Amino acid sequence: ELEKYPDQFTVHQIYQAYPDGVIDVAKEQALVEEHENLVFQFPVYWFNCPPLLKQWLDEVLTYGWAYGSTGDKVKNKKFMLAVSAGGQEHIYSEQGEYKLTLDQVFSSFQLTALYVGADYQPLHAFYGLDTNPSEDDDVPTHQDVANNAIEYVQKLLALSK
Q1: Strand, coil or helix: 40
Q2: What is the pLDDT of residue 15?
């Protein structure tokens, strides 16, 4: 959906950019510096982000660039997660199967934003994308996906205001 708005959003797919897992740190840092907002969009992967995104965070958010006495390149940038979860929303609750909300699951991203001085924004989630749902799961329709995509774009456009 974001690719429909090339003047407003830069979509950078790190698995396509780095299929060999070798990240060009200088290129990534320059890309970050060109933008006021950072939105990390990914599927929930074992209650975390995919491995290459973790590697990206480890290698790109360096001392002296992202944090430390001279590290200010992400300071005050809006920092947000947009995730898709296989499970239904109710299982990501204190009363649900996992006993944690997605906000709690991804609290390390909020801490990362705090550590580098970024402005952490509430995450955007889409639930229920399990490829093997149970009979009582409320499986999202194509219209649900389309509606969520529109809501997501509106949320991102509001970040820049």
Answers
A1: strand
A2: 97
For 93-142, how does the pLDDT look when each residue is reduced to its tens digit (9 = 90+)?
Answer: 999 999 999 999 999 999 999 999 999 999 999 998 876 656 666 777 78
Cα–Cα–Cα angle for 148, 150, 155, rounded to 5 degrees: 90
Pull the structure tokens for residue 20.
Answer: 């060999």
Cα separation, 105 vs 115, whole angstroms: 18
The pLDDT assigned to 136 comes to 61
The whole-number pLDDT of residue 132 equals 60
Query: Whose structure tokens read 């590697």?
Result: 55
Q: What is the pTM of this model?
A: 0.90
Residue 85, CA atoms < 13 Å, CB-side half-sphere: 22
Query: CA dist 105 to 1, 11, 17, 66, 83, Å?
Result: 26, 25, 27, 23, 11
Exposed/middle/buried for residue 143 (C-beta within 10 Å: 0-12, 13-18, 19+) = exposed
Q: Other C-beta atoms within 10 Å of 86: how many?
A: 16
Q: Which amino acid is at 159?
A: L
CA distance 42 to 83: 5
Buried b (16+ CB within 10 A) or exposed e, 106-116: beebbebbeeb
